[in-house]
């Protein structure tokens, strides 16, 4: 089992815990240590796994400083969480990058099968590829949301790296990618060919400025995700503390924490990854808080997936010029969904219907005879 490959948390991190009060996070979670061994996972809901693999990174960067992250994370106080948390330690690099991919894929598959959410931290963004492949065995269609200032496509079809992993995911057969959504791209970092490809595949992309002032519009996007990955190069230098090679424009710390919480709130999401880490003291404090907010979101889930509209939902029918749209609002969470149907009048066996997360604004637009863009793209993908 690939879990046996995980190395225990460093002794220097554990020795520093003695200086903290008993209420801190580090003293209230299970930790894989050399002395106590691998923790029992029976009551665990979320686990953290550190990864140092950067051999396919497009950018030069230092190795994942696991000790710096854990010192900052362990020192935080937990919320009112009624769920088990474990730190499983770190996955060492395999003899080849493909060996690391295989081990990470097996780890995520095993954890998902026992209803545990893996939080993968460190390494380069191409590690989302083995996270995606962990869904192969169940042949489940996968929605990926990537918080990134670029799309990570490449013209080099055979090269898999931090700039081309999405090309491999798209081209691979059999293919289980249902939708890919980018949050936070910056136009001057994107080739026109990449924008054209996103449109051709009816994927979704949202510029940084589209949600910088109102992050709540991203909640439905994250609600539909199976995998959420964060490329930390999306951060502004003011947030990462990396003023030498960091970006002048980017996501601020408060916004990233809100995105992380929305990801945790998603009843559908089963893997969360944070990659391309910066190497400054303030960054590791922010990273610790990003993980804290993700756990906070998981603790507040509404248990509304799969969505069962037979009870606890209000139904709204909106008549447009050519057809009708069905909207549903949860009485528990007050969140909205829109029906996406693929009606086949020749063969009813091939007809299908699903629900797409949406905002109240999508409903109001429909009432004005304006089709919501997310619904239109979803219909094209269907």
Structure description:
The chain is an alpha/beta fold and 382 residues long. It folds into two domains: 298 residues, Arginase, Chain A, CATH 3.40.800; 69 residues, no CATH class. The chain is built from 13 helices and 13 strands. A nine-stranded parallel β-sheet has the order 1-3-2-4-9-8-5-6-7. The protein has a four-stranded antiparallel β-sheet with strand order 10-11-12-13. α2 links the parallel β2 and β3. α10 runs parallel beside α11. The radius of gyration is 21 Å and the shape is globular.
- Overall tally of structural domains: 2
What would you say the CATH architecture of the largest domain is?
A: 3-Layer(aba) Sandwich
* SSE string, helices as H and strands as E: HEEHEHEHEHEHEHHEHHEHEEEEHH
For the record, give the distance between the C-alpha atoms at the N and C termini, rounded to a whole number.
Answer: 37 Å
Number of H- or I-type helical stretches: 13
- Number of DSSP-assigned strands: 13
Strand order of the largest sheet: 1-3-2-4-9-8-5-6-7
Query: In the CATH hierarchy, what is the class of the largest domain?
Result: Alpha Beta
Here the CATH topology of the largest domain equals Arginase, Chain A
Question: Hey, roughly how much beta strand do the residues contain?
Answer: 15-25%
Q: Please outline the major beta sheet.
A: 9 strands, parallel
Proportion in helices: 25-40%
Poorly predicted runs of 5 or more residues: 344-351
| Shape call | globular
